[in-house]
Each structure stands twice: as C-alpha cells, then as structure tokens.
Amino acid sequence: MQMNDLIICSVDDHIIEPPSMFDQHLSAEHRKLAPQYVTDDTGHAFWFWEHEGKKTFNVGLNAVVGRPKEEYGMEPANIDQMRKGTWDPKLHIDDMNAGGILTSVCFPTYPGFAGQWFWDAKDKKNAERIVAAYNDWHIDEWCGPYKGRYIPTAILPLWDIEASLREIKRVIRKGCRSISFPSNPHILAGLKPIHDPVWEPIWALCNDEHVILNCHIGTGQPAAFASDQSPISAWISSLPMAIGTDAADLLHLSALLRYPNLKISLSEGGIGWIPYFLERADFVQRHHGAWVRNNWGGKLPSEVFREHFLSCFIEDKFGCGVYDKVGEDIIAYECDYPHSDCTWPVVAEELWKNVKDLPEAVANKITHGNAFKFFNFDPIAILGRENCTVGALRAQAKDVDTSERSLEGKDARVQGDLSRAVTAGDVWKTFGQR
Fold first, then answer.
1. Of 65-79, 179-193, 229-243, 275-289, which range is least confident?
2. Is residue 1 a part of any domain in this protein?
3. 203: in domain
4. Residues near 36 by Cβ (< 8 Å), separated by ≥ 6?
5. Host domain of residue 393
C-alpha cells in the first residue's frame, strides 16, 4: 500500500459557525431570541445572546489553519480573516479533499464542544429551541448535502434529561446517531456526575439506538497549566493527556456492564498513554479490588475499555508502534481542523509517517476501518472505494489553494514581548478569562 491508497476518516474536527446559521431553522420571532454574530468597533467578532445577556470570547479561537505558524496563538478576530473552509461546508469539503480526508466528525466552536454555552440559560424553553435549531443546521446544512463526507453529531440540552431524550430521539429520526457529551458533566457545568442514576435513561437510549457519545478534551477536567508564567508549549504538550482523569471515571461507569452497545469516543486524547493507563487499571483491580469493591463483571478493566471506547491521535508514532498494547480495534485518526494542532494540508503525509510500517490490515483499521465500524457509517458503500482514497480526493482538489496566507495588515494578535517565550498566561488572556 502507498500513501495515496489510504482512506482517511477524522473523528475530531471543528466548525466555525457562520452568522447565517439560524436563518433557516428559527422563525423571525425566535431568531430575535437567539445568539447573533456581532462585530464591534475594533473589528473583533463574537456571538452575543442579548436575550440572556452573555457573549462568547473571540469566535475565531483556534481558526488558524492556513496561516503561517508564526501567527498562531492569538487567533483571527473575525470570520473574514479565517480560511473559508472553516465556516463553509462545501469549501470545507474542498479542504478535506486537499488533505486527503474522506469523512469527518465536526464539533461546535462558539457553543463549546458539547454545547455547554447554552446550558445555564435562564429561558430554558428558548434554549432548548436553539439547541434543536443548531442541530438542524448541522445535520441539514453542514452534513446533509454531502453524503458520506460528514458524520453528523448533535448537542443536547443536558440541563434537562427529558429534553435531552426528546432531542436524541428527534435527531435519530434525522439520521444522526452521534452526540457530543461532556467527558465530565459535573466538573464542566455542575451537572450530576456520570455515576448518578439521573443519567440512566440516556445510557439506555444510546445503547438501544447505537448512539455514540463523543467526549472531547476540555469538556471535563480542565487542561491545567502550572502557572501563568509557564511556557505555553508546556501546556500544549500535556493537552492530549488532560482527558486521562475523565477517562478513568468513564471506564468505571457501571452502565458499561449493563449496556454492551454504550460506546464512548475519547476525542483529541492521543493514544500513547493508554497502554500504561490500562496496565495501571488492571493492577488496581488485582491489588485493591478486595477493598474498593468495583464490579467489572468478571472482566479486567482493560477488557471493558476495549469493548466500549475509541481513542484517536493526530501524531503518535509511539502509540501506533504499540498498537497491540493499545488495542488495534480501538484506534482512530483525527485531524483537528482548523485548530493549531492540525497538520493540514499535509494530513496524508503526516499520517503516513505513523502507519507506513504497520501491517496493512492494521493501518486500514487505524486510518478509517475502526471509525466506520464504531460509528456504523460506511461512506465507501455510498461513494465507491475508488473515489475515497487520498489520491482520488486530491485529484478533485487540484484547484484548491493550500498556500499559507498571512492576515496582511489585519493581524489581530496581541504581540506582547517578542523577546521571551509565550506563556500560558499570555494565551489564557485571549480567552477573555483574565
């Protein structure tokens, strides 16, 4: 197999929502009660929810794809400063073709990866309506016209279990069997912990209808940095492993023993740490099991993990090299477009470095097979294998300009002191947090 023969599925990409997203999915009256895309006098843009009196931080956060790396970190200020493929679904398909990606799972941006920006709304009825409108836009406009290219993924009104159940059932009728679920709802938003019986109806419904839970880093335990003075590269280095604490908690979810079809995708978590994590979990059961009294149904924790979880990586040569210790059936690829970690447009080239020395059957599982099986999604049957390879997709992208482009005078970065390393505190300020 050669690089151009690869078929690539990314189980973690992101959308920059366009200002028109609600136009076709809310009445004129209800659009007035929905968030609006606003540009201030300085040219900086954000989503403003007047009805709730709240706004997002800069909507362009991490929409740096296609920019020179020297300009990473402080993000473009407005949607017109971003690559159009970040917010236009057709042009995003063009960018997928240029990178060699066949299929993508796309998470939200301004509502938070799990839609958490909507959860503390005072007007719950309106917020539930907006969540549904968001999902309709994502399923019908972003994914719908491009069969086989997107795996639709919904957000939920998780402040209300009954409302969430209604929304899951509704999006299932629209052909969506994938939801973004916080890796730790209690830490993220003060919701009930995953071990509380309140979640049982959701576990049961997802089991019965084969609905995937996508748990993204940043939707649970915070990706903590040591101090404001810590170099930002120290924070970035530890980001993929930030999901480890939540992964341990999710692994101990007793519902996994009751519901064999309850499946969890750990989005943007990497894979190299998993062998030790599973070894440690098994040791804890052998060494501490007599007094901690966990019920694993006669299995080892590592066996339960490999039955219920999917992991993914952007670049992890070590993890791929020990695929048998991770579990060759639970590894998938992620691009993370348009965030700063993504390798676009050389996606295929960088992925090939990770899998070229693996057995071809294993490489095929990792690059697409495991993801298609996990999400019960088969774009090859829709599009034909000959149209799904890196080579075939790039042949459709000959006219796509993949050259780097600077903001050319519209630089929105906070330059700061260029004589020192960028710190975690410098970047944290751009989130509007400090």
1. 65-79
2. no
3. yes
4. 19, 47, 48, 49, 50
5. 13-429
Per DSSP, 34 falls in state S
Those residues with Cβ within 8 angstroms of residue 277's Cβ, 6 or more apart along the chain or in another chain: 244, 247, 248
In this structure, are strands 263-267 and 309-313 parallel, antiparallel, or unpaired? parallel
* CATH number of the domain within which 384 lies: 3.20.20.140
37-89 pLDDT per residue, tens:
999 888 888 999 999 999 997 767 689 999 888 878 666 778 988 999 999 99
Region at 193 (left for phi over 0; alpha for psi -120 to 50; beta for the rest): beta
Question: Does residue 433 register a pLDDT over 50?
Answer: no
Q: Count structural domains, the chain.
A: 1
pLDDT digit string, tens, across residues 410-427: 444 445 566 788 888 877
Query: For the whole model, what pTM was predicted?
Result: 0.95
- Asked whether residue 345 is domain-assigned, the answer is yes
Cα pseudo-dihedral 13, 354, 93, 134, rounded to 10: -10
d(CA 391, CA 79): 31
CA-CA distance, 422 to 335, in Å (whole number)?
25
The b/e string for 325-352 (b: 16+ C-beta within 10 A; e otherwise) is: bbbbbbbbbbbbbbbbbbbbbebbeebb
Q: Give the pairing of strands 178-180 and 212-216.
A: parallel
Q: Cα separation of 210 and 380, whole Å?
A: 20
Specify which residues 215 forms β-bridges with. Answer: 266
Assigned domain for 167 exists? yes
Assign 3-class secondary structure to 225-270. CCCCCCEHHHHHHHHHHHHHHHHHHHHCCCHHHHCCCCEEEEECCC
Q: Tell me the backbone φ, ψ of residue 350, rounded to 5 degrees.
A: -70, -40
